[in-house]
User: What shape does this take?
Amino acid sequence: MPYPALVEGQQARCKQCHHILLYRKPNPINRSIAISIAGLILAIPAIYLPIMSMKMFSISSTVSLSSAVYSLWLNELYFVALVTCFFCILAPIGKLIIALTLGIQVKTNQFKRPSYMPLIRFYQRIDSWEMLEVFMIGILVSIFKLRADADLFFDLGLVSYILFMLCIVALKLSFDKELLWNKVVVDD
Assistant: This one.
């Protein structure tokens, strides 16, 4: 039995167990566009600004996401550098760009374009590839390990990184993949 056509904010429930089968998120296109733009703006300071500064004895050091990847590369940890770069930088930014592109295509009624379907498929694949939370856990672990041995200072990059991560989480919650697929099926 096909799902009923739902308007924004409506739910379809099973008649026997009352489990939610489908939930049409409220205002998903505008929210996804706004979150994608905010995430892309925050990506630049999140990647390049220092996340944390450390002072141990008389030696000071700062680290950013880009400098961490670069440092891994210089220390000949090529695979770890590439994986970190992909999962913490490229995949989240790619996800934001694709969500923004799909949102704009739906908003401007250009979902008949040949790029629409491959973008939805790629978004579904890349949706689980970003691992910003794992990098955040690494930051927290290093904070707890270093707090007794060194003076730690949190920089603007950490705030940007947390907000960037929250944009990715908010996009997951607001992006309505079912609606995007229905645009193709219903409007054909």
Summary: The longest strand covers residues 52-56. Residues 16 and 110 are 39 Å apart (CA to CA). The mean pLDDT is 80.
